Amino acid sequence: MMIRTFGKKIVGRCCAKVSNRRSCSDYQRSVRSSSSYSFSKTNQNDDNKRTKTQVYCKIAVCLAAAGATGFYCWKKFLSNSNHVTSLEKLAEDLPFEAGARRPDLPNYKYDEVAEHTSEETGIWVIFKEGVYDITKFIKQHPGGDEKISMAIGGSVEPFWDLYSIHLNKHVFEILESLRIGNVHPEEEMQVFKSGDHYAHEPKRHPALKVNSQKPFNAETPLQILVESFYTPNELFFVRNHLPVPKKSKLEDDFQITGIGLDSSISLTMSELKMKYKPHEITTSVMCAGNRRSAMHETKPVKGLQWSAGAVSTAKWKGIKLSDLLKDLGITEDSKACHIIFQGADTDIESKPYEVSIPLEIALDPNREVLLAFEMNGKEIPLDHGYPIRVIVPGVIGARQVKWLKKIIVSEKESDSLWQQKDYKTFNPSLNIETCDTGKAMAVLEFPVQSAICQPANGSVLKLENKKSLEVKGYALSGAGKKILRVDVSVDGGQSWMEADLYTETKTQMNREWAWTLWKLDVPLSDDMLRKQIDITCKATDSAHNTQPESDLGIWNARGLLENKWPKISVKFE
Amino acid sequence: MMIRTFGKKIVGRCCAKVSNRRSCSDYQRSVRSSSSYSFSKTNQNDDNKRTKTQVYCKIAVCLAAAGATGFYCWKKFLSNSNHVTSLEKLAEDLPFEAGARRPDLPNYKYDEVAEHTSEETGIWVIFKEGVYDITKFIKQHPGGDEKISMAIGGSVEPFWDLYSIHLNKHVFEILESLRIGNVHPEEEMQVFKSGDHYAHEPKRHPALKVNSQKPFNAETPLQILVESFYTPNELFFVRNHLPVPKKSKLEDDFQITGIGLDSSISLTMSELKMKYKPHEITTSVMCAGNRRSAMHETKPVKGLQWSAGAVSTAKWKGIKLSDLLKDLGITEDSKACHIIFQGADTDIESKPYEVSIPLEIALDPNREVLLAFEMNGKEIPLDHGYPIRVIVPGVIGARQVKWLKKIIVSEKESDSLWQQKDYKTFNPSLNIETCDTGKAMAVLEFPVQSAICQPANGSVLKLENKKSLEVKGYALSGAGKKILRVDVSVDGGQSWMEADLYTETKTQMNREWAWTLWKLDVPLSDDMLRKQIDITCKATDSAHNTQPESDLGIWNARGLLENKWPKISVKFE
């Protein structure tokens, strides 16, 4: 019954939010159709009478039924934002605290848990402070073994943020029955030996798809990327340019200096929080190299071979940079033209990561540039810029400096290589040797983009009398442009079907900072089932910009801003 | 010498303006290289001693020399903005007033002049109040007969705005020597009989390429479109949805009413001009149907068959709508969401032309929405919205209401067909019958666009030992996005050459309302000279949006916002 009520509540919220997009009746229908199944009420006292297998079967049946109605997937889109409240509420209701430390059990370090990933070694996972052996359970997991496998050797928490159906008393009961120990209380957040320039890297979730270890760069796996409107912090893609600074040396302050300021001023976030009204925005952060591997296939390009997972979405809380600058007397009439940001991360010569943005953007309250201190309601994790990072909605990730240490009000752009060399695009006929970086503009806002996340490219799917194939993905555009439409084609663009769109934000004109999720049930003909199906999509934003068919006009030597029509192929067996 | 100084002066201005775009040395080089020729100083007293032919030859030689250095074309880009001042200054220096009424000569009506367009009838043109017979001169015109032919039967003034080299004492001397009469002082600005709903249409310049007479819709011919950064008012494309209102009934006032206002308020522009600081902006106005004929070729679409000339650029002066709304207490917290504009033009049932824009845009001072009363330094011509029109930079022309009569502060969009039906795009697989206009968003901002204006598509060019072919066009993007690059290809997009860009505006981030003109000298190989050359181009804007290769992803039933790569073909003989 809880799920039922929960579902209805969310439908109401969703309706308000999809106005101006499309009728919400589709959403209501899909959720309502699922409300016919229920979870039987159990009594804690009966627990011991029930075998684990019985419980698994019960959940499996429930979930299978839910999956069949299509509810499971859409519910996940809808429910995540309520996760924190629900989890807390649930904890109060439970007679035991799932994941709490148990003095009667042994302690294990993260590395030990990470070694337990097979039937031979045992398959272990972490939930809060608890360590669990799920070797026998995994095959009976109602959601199949694909996604649970991504959590093994690490924490299940970020996955339960995505699949909030787990936030259920019975699931906690099963989990605690698999308990074997606790996370070691002295566990250190280090993966590399000290002395290494990369000695202070935090522990990362094993589900992240690593592109480079030093510096650490990893994307959110596509299978889970659009399972939730908000990406759990632990699964948020990571793009670091340099080693992560040592956490204990990071302080709650930064310097501001430059044109219009008599001297360098030191400001703490605590002071700023008291002085200025905190501001919260939901924005997607995307690396300019997202989907580079697709451009590389056309013609090789330099840079990390990102798939389409170098983008994630979070709720960020901070103070508006425009409030601070205004207060310090920096106006549009200033001689300054740029705001330079420096991070605490440094290269081997102790030079910090540094980039800049135009003053107009920094000063415009509607552009909502934040000095952020919270990510999805929590302290910003070390990998994402603890304790303060810059959030510049609508522009590429590279300008959104982590571990903020210094702001410089300047007449000129930053002269760092990240501003002057790395993030620039060129005429498709120029290569790294012939391109003129001095002439090209530093990339700031990005073009309209989309990706197909599910099914995975190259999947061989089970036939199972399917009448349609669910295709899911995301779309977003730079500079706050809203996604008007995502069209999907299975005949190379000769004909198009319009996808259902989903967002959790309600923004004003040109302030749609977050992605739009989309879904389409592609009807399957008998003919299609016999051969390979090539699926493509394209998004249109509110300025009616759309994606190019191929790389012919957009290929560039650095492989930036790949936004040609994404394509996947699947087969049935 | 005058030209020389003039050229230098302009180069200085140009340099300041192309900063952040590209080195201005190219521009300097091209202009400086032309400074070696001079105009001989003539004395008015010597006039009668000189035959007309001698004068024509002298100018022809000068201009041929100029043309050969490439100066002629670029100078035109650079000089136009100084036209008004130069013309006035020149008039003071002359011993006679060119184009002034001469009581000794007969009067002719516009229609009579318009009938003189061939050798048989005589070829007549108008300059100010003078009528001239240029039958014998036309073959000796130094600029060739193509462009002068566009002026016959009408006024040469807008062309001289484009080709300001004519603003020369000697040209005026030649012109006056061809004088045959005056424009009739009682000339009426009517082309249709009274009683007709279209009885009050103004006289239009014969050079405009008419797409529809009732309502009047005409584009600027591509041959002259990019000859000047500012389009002369007489040659500015015209897009009327209804008959033009009677000029004598149009008054200097409009009503404002709706949410947040106690009662309807009547305001005169004279009052507003006194109360608010006048504001001037340079913006291109583009019809959403621009280039529709190219989309129609792919698959038929409904609507006027515009080529690429449904766009023009002017300097507009008016008061900021944001100033007025703010003063009336309309804020973002208002219940209102839209500003509706009504024109004085009405349909057969007396319903006015009406559309709306979102309140956010109307209130944002940086979006610079104007209630305009001046166009290129002159009273707005009747065809362009005299005495007051709305200018909404960065959005399609349809939202920029002419002959403004009423502003309504509203909770909802306008329910007119121009807001709810006509200006909407759909999935390429939908046609007029299957599209759902209720679901689609009214088009507002437009995508990145470009066109090739010279040479004309299908031209057969003279070989003349050419080493390169000059290709010229324009590019622009919606929502104030700047044009970063225009690339040109002669091999279907397999390789690209970067064009030189030119603008006369210096705007802030996301406030580049006007087009960017571009030019490229395409190198010609022997092989290319022997066959048809297919030329294509594409523009990239500051958000790195670019144009799609084909209509595959953008075709829409109403043929709006065609922005696929433009293509032309030329041959040499």
TrEMBL record, chains A, B:
It is found in: Mitochondrion intermembrane space. PROSITE patterns: CYTOCHROME_B5_2. The keyword Protease does not apply. SUPFAM superfamilies: Cytochrome b5-like heme/steroid binding domain, E set domains, Oxidoreductase molybdopterin-binding domain. Its cofactor is Mo-molybdopterin; heme b. Its EC number is 1.8.3.1. One of its GO terms (cellular component) is mitochondrial intermembrane space. The keyword Transmembrane helix does not apply. GO terms for molecular function: heme binding; molybdenum ion binding; molybdopterin cofactor binding; sulfite oxidase activity. Residues 105-184 form the Cytochrome b5 heme-binding domain. One of its GO terms (biological process) is sulfur compound metabolic process. Keywords: Heme, Iron, Metal-binding, Mitochondrion, Molybdenum, Oxidoreductase. InterPro entries: Cyt_B5-like_heme/steroid-bd (IPR001199), Cyt_B5-like_heme/steroid_sf (IPR036400), Ig_E-set (IPR014756), MoCF_OxRdtse_dimer (IPR005066), Mopterin_OxRdtase_euk (IPR008335), OxRdtase_Mopterin-bd_dom (IPR000572), OxRdtase_Mopterin-bd_sf (IPR036374). Pfam families: Cyt-b5, Mo-co_dimer, Oxidored_molyb. Pathway: Energy metabolism; sulfur metabolism; Sulfur metabolism. It is an enzyme of class 1 (oxidoreductase). PANTHER family: SULFITE OXIDASE, MITOCHONDRIAL, SULFITE REDUCTASE. This is Sulfite oxidase. It comes from Helobdella robusta. The gene is 20199976.
